[in-house]
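Q: I'm building a small set of examples for a reading group on sequence design. Run inverse folding on the following structure and report the sequence directly after it, with nothing in between.
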C-alpha cells in the first residue's frame, strides 16, 4: 500500500502513465477489437496525449516550481476539455434515435474541403457515428473516458493548489 501511495503522489508519473495507457488501450481495442473511433473519440485521444505530454515535461529534473504549476494547470485544462468532449459524446449516445444527427463525411474529406475551424465545429457537434457504441463493460468507452478525465482534472487541481514542502 505504501508503494501505491508513493506512486499517486507523483503527478508526472500519473499524468504520463494514465494518458499513454489509455491511448494504448484505445489503440489495442481499435486494432484487435475492430472498433473504429469516431471523431469525438479521436479528440479524446488527443486530450489524453496532451495530458501525457504534460506529465513527461513535468518529469524533467530541475524544473522550476512555476513551470511545474503551469504544466499542472495545462494538464487540468486538457482534462477539462477532454471531459467536455466525452460528455458531448455521452449526450449523443443517450439521445432518442429520431434525434441523433446524421452521419458526417469521413474525417479526411472534412480536412481536405473545410477550413480548420469548421472541421472542429463539425466534429464537436457530433454525428451519428458518435452516438453508437458497440462495447460495454459497466460503462462504454466515452463514459470510462469521462471518469478518467474527471479524476485527472481533480488530481491535477489538487497538486496545483497543494503547498510545496521541502523533501
Amino acid at each position: 500500500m505504501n508503494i501505491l501511495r508513493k506512486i499517486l503522489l507523483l503527478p508526472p508519473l500519473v499524468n504520463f502513465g494514465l494518458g499513454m495507457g489509455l491511448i494504448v488501450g484505445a489503440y489495442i481495442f481499435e486494432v484487435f477489437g475492430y472498433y473504429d473511433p469516431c471523431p469525438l473519440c479521436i479528440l479524446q485521444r488527443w486530450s489524453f496525449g496532451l495530458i501525457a505530454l504534460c506529465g513527461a515535461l513535468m518529469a524533467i529534473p530541475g524544473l522550476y516550481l512555476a513551470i511545474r504549476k503551469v504544466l499542472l494547470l495545462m494538464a487540468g485544462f486538457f482534462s477539462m476539455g477532454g471531459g467536455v468532449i466525452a460528455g458531448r459524446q455521452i449526450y449523443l449516445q443517450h439521445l432518442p434515435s429520431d434525434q441523433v444527427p446524421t452521419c458526417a463525411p469521413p474525417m479526411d474529406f472534412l480536412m481536405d474541403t473545410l477550413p480548420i475551424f469548421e472541421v472542429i465545429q463539425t466534429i464537436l457537434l457530433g454525428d451519428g457515428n458518435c452516438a453508437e457504441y458497440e462495447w460495454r463493460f459497466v460503462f462504454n468507452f466515452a463514459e470510462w473516458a469521462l471518469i478518467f478525465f474527471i479524476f485527472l482534472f481533480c488530481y491535477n487541481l489538487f497538486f496545483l493548489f497543494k503547498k510545496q514542502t521541502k523533501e
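The chain has seven helices and no strands.
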